């Protein structure tokens, strides 16, 4: 997962809602400095921060991080052990 995709996702979602970084910070309990750092890619959010941001935007943490679980690779690894 690249920092750029998380950075753009947070920024894009915030701008789409028409809220400021300060408003997002206030709503999530995360400092505005941290929100700015996340959006600029200088800081990766903690799990708690990611959960708060995702919840605010009505996303799952997976959606926030654009994570795609590859179920086939897990099955292949399980089959290899037999």
UniProtKB/TrEMBL annotation:
GO MF annotation terms: DNA binding
Keywords: DNA-binding
Superkingdom assignment: Bacteria
Pfam families, per database record: HTH_3
Domain HTH cro/C1-type: 10-64
InterPro entries: Cro/C1-type_HTH, Lambda_DNA-bd_dom_sf
PANTHER family to which the protein is assigned, alphabetical: DNA-BIDING PHAGE PROTEIN (PTHR46558:SF4), TRACRIPTIONAL REGULATORY PROTEIN-RELATED-RELATED (PTHR46558)
The protein's name in its UniProt record: HTH cro/C1-type domain-containing protein
Native source species: Acetivibrio ethanolgignens
